[in-house]
Structures are given as structure tokens and as C-alpha cells.
Amino acid sequence: MNEIICKKCGMKYGYELCGPVYPGCKDRENADCPYCGETGYSTMTSQVLVVTKLEKDVVKQILPKKDIKVSVHNMAPGDALMVGSLAAFEVVKGKATSYRFYAAEGVETRKVSSKRLDDAIKENNIRRSVRPVSERLVNFHDYDMFEYAMENDKKWHDIAIEGLGWLSFIALGQIIRIRLPKEVAIKESLAKIR
């Protein structure tokens, strides 16, 4: 991973080229600052250029090296699943059921009470017992929150967080609140793996 300090806003961010190289197939790829949009690096390549606000050690933990691992948790309303200190899924309403989180082998999860979630994240930022932990995510204002009201179709669904992993579960009319770093994409869909 290469790091850049933006000449316009002074913030640090990283970029990396990913994917196969195809001879003759080249497009312009830019590493635009995720804070202000200024282009800090540009190249012609067939690879994809990925830009991140996260530190090198965090990126190493969230990128799969060999396998995607799954952690399984039974959760009910009032339960939350921390994904390191990067993200969290809370069950706000619905029936107790099994939730599977798929991610790189360096990503750890912990089930906690929703009431203790803020304190658990703050504590984890200090103790670093559930990885990954980012120095850039230190308070409530560093995250976006989304809620999904699921159907009661009894089918497997996924809620995916770009670049981190996905939560898979049977939709039973739950309301699920997701906390994730600002400007990170999230998507809900029918499950790809069952």
C-alpha cells in the first residue's frame, strides 16, 4: 500500500493497485483524496486502483490472504455484533436467529449488548482485543448509521459492507441497524452463499 499526504487538505490516505494485468487494456486510474477529492496519483493500467482512509495495518487485516472465514452468532433484539472497531450490526427488532459474518481471516467479531456497544467500541480502541482497530475511528461522529427493515420472506439475505465483509441471515421481519465508517458503501441483497 502506498500512502499520500494530500497537497490540498493535508490529510493522509492510501492507495493500492489490485487485480490482474491485461496487456493492451489500459484505462486512467486516479487516487483521489477521499477527504477533498484532489487527485494525488494517476496512472494508466488495467488494474483497479483502490483508495482507502484506513491505515496500512488495518488494510492488511481486512484483505483476504487465503480464505474467507465465517463467524456464527445467535442474536436477538438488543444484541449487537462488533466487527473489530470498524463496524457493528445491531438487531433492533425481530426474532432471535443465527447470523453469519463472512470476512478475511484477520477480521474478528464479538457479540455484545446493544446498550453497551458505544462503550465496547471505546474499550476496544484502547485494548485492541477485537481486530481490526483504526486510529481514525475514535468517536460516534466518525460513523454513518443505516437501518434495514427486512421482509418476512424466510429467505437468506446479505448485508455487505464494501471492503470489509458481509452479514448473512434469514429475513424474519427484523430491523437491523448498521454502523460503519463514513463514506463506505453498504448493500442489502438476497444471499449469494447459503
What this model shows, in words?
This protein is mostly beta strands. The chain folds into two domains: 2-53, no CATH class; 64-190, no CATH class. The protein contains two helices and 15 strands. A five-stranded antiparallel beta sheet has the order 6-9-13-12-15, with no helix packed on it. The protein has a five-stranded antiparallel beta sheet with strand order 10-7-8-14-11, covered by helices on one side. The longest helix has 11 residues, at 117-127.
Compute the number of helices. Answer: 2
Largest beta-sheet characterization = 5 strands, antiparallel
How large a portion of the residues is in β-strands, by DSSP E? over 45%
Oligomeric state, counting identical vs distinct chains: single chain
Q: What integer is the average pLDDT?
A: 88
Shape: globular
Our measurement of the CA-to-CA distance between the termini, rounded to an integer number of angstroms, reads: 33 Å
The secondary-structure class comes to mainly beta
Q: For the CA atoms, what is the radius of gyration?
A: 18 Å
Topology as a string of helices (H) and strands (E): EEEEEHEEEEEHEEEEE
Low-pLDDT ranges: none
Q: Any idea how many domains?
A: 2
Strand order of the largest sheet: 6-9-13-12-15
Query: Which percent bin holds the helix content?
Result: under 10%
Number of strands: 15
